[in-house]
């Protein structure tokens, strides 16, 4: 059967601050600029979760998009939406919540919920022009 990629878009708003606790305030500002504002700032994150697999001849589906929607809601949106990532999300207690690290965390959370026969890719937009992709 042909292998094909399905995509599900999702969205969350979250606040963060980029900060390396090992550095001085001056160095944090020098490296992270406005993103190091100690009072935090928000982004409208746009997420695309992509699964690649074979089409099931019985359903015509690669994967049930309703099931994927629910997985994203439970494991990403419910954890991150309207949260301060640095303070309220366990994964970022000791991990800088850059768009790169957020994408890896999302990948790791979803990877364990989706069977290995599917390839998983995360695309995460922090702004309309800045985005990352991660596929493990
Ligand atoms: Ni930022």
Summarize it:
The chain has helices at residues 25-32, 65-80, 85-88, 99-111; strands at residues 3-16, 41-54, 83-84, 119-125, 131-134. The protein is an alpha+beta fold.
Please explain how this structure is put together.
This protein has helices spanning 25-32, 65-80, 85-88, 99-111, and strands at 3-16, 41-54, 83-84, 119-125, 131-134. Helix content is 30%, strand content 30%. By secondary structure, the chain is of the alpha+beta class. A hairpin with a 5-residue loop joins strand 4 and strand 5. It has one domain: Tetrahydropterin Synthase, Chain A (2-Layer Sandwich). Strands 3-1-2-4-5 form a five-stranded mixed sheet. The chain contains four helices and five strands, in the order E-H-E-H-E-H-H-E-E. Bound molecules: nickel (II) ion (NI). Residues 16, 35, 41, 43 line the site of nickel (II) ion (NI).
């Amino acid at each position: 059967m042909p292998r094909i990629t399905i995509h599900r878009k999702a969205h969350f708003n979250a606040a963060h601050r980029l900060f390396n606790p090992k550095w001085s305030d001056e160095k944090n500002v020098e490296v992270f600029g406005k993103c190091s504002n100690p009072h935090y700032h928000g982004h409208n994150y746009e997420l695309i979760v992509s699964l690649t697999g074979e089409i099931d001849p019985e359903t015509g589906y690669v994967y049930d998009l309703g099931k994927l929607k629910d997985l994203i809601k439970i494991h990403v949106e419910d954890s991150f939406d309207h949260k301060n990532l640095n303070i309220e999300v366990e994964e970022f207690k000791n991990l800088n919540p850059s768009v790169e690290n957020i994408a890896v965390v999302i990948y790791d959370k979803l990877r364990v919920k989706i069977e290995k026969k599917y390839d998983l890719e995360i695309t995460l937009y922090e702004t309309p022009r800045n985005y990352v992709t991660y596929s493990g």
